[in-house]
Write a structure and sequence with these properties.
Structural class: alpha/beta
Keywords: Cell membrane, Glycosyltransferase, Magnesium, Membrane, Metal-binding, Purine salvage, Transferase
Distance between the termini: 25 Å
Shape: globular
Largest sheet: 6 strands, mixed
Mean pLDDT: 92
GO cellular component, one term: cytosol
Organism: Catenovulum maritimum
CATH architecture: 3-Layer(aba) Sandwich
Number of strands: 8
Strand content: 35-45%
GO molecular function, one term: metal ion binding
Strand order of the largest sheet: 4-3-2-5-6-7
Number of domains: 1
Helix content: 10-25%
Protein name: Phosphoribosyltransferase domain-containing protein
CATH topology: Rossmann fold
Length: 143
């Protein structure tokens, strides 16, 4: 089976991220948002604006090697809390390994992704667009 390439434009990404923000408005008592770097940085900016949240943190993980192959997950920088009241934002959940790893460190966090593939969709609490597992998603900042 061959993989397909899904090219996402800035307009599509912005629309999908705003749709995700609309879903997240129903969550009560959000302390702040944690951007999962690097993919979560841009959607976090949009979501914090949409939800009028000013408290932003990052969790820095490395899960791909220099050839964009999945590798061992390394926690490079992390917030000093267990995730209670915090919303973690990613651009994409693929295999679910990164979020599964983060849930071990932040068991009370809520996880949201703009895009979700079937193998990882069960790891995220919120998402907007489901994409095929074999799709390579090219986000606008990667073009």
């Amino acid at each position: 089976m061959s993989s397909s390439k899904l090219v996402i434009s800035w307009d599509e990404f912005h629309l999908h991220t705003r749709q995700l923000a609309s879903q997240l408005k129903s969550i009560e008592n959000i302390t702040g948002i944690v951007a999962v770097t690097r993919g979560g940085i841009i959607p976090t900016g949009i979501i914090t604006s949409e939800l009028n949240i000013r408290l932003i943190d990052t969790v820095c993980v490395s899960s791909y090697d220099k050839n964009n192959q999945q590798a061992e997950i390394n926690l490079l920088k992390y917030p000093n809390h267990d995730g209670d009241g915090w919303l973690f934002i990613e651009d994409l959940v693929d295999s679910g390994n990164t979020i599964r790893f983060l849930k071990q460190h932040f068991p009370k966090a809520i996880f949201a992704c703009v895009y979700a593939k079937p193998n990882g969709v069960c790891q995220t609490d919120y998402f907007v667009e489901k994409v095929k597992q074999d799709s390579w998603i090219q986000l606008p900042w990667e073009i």
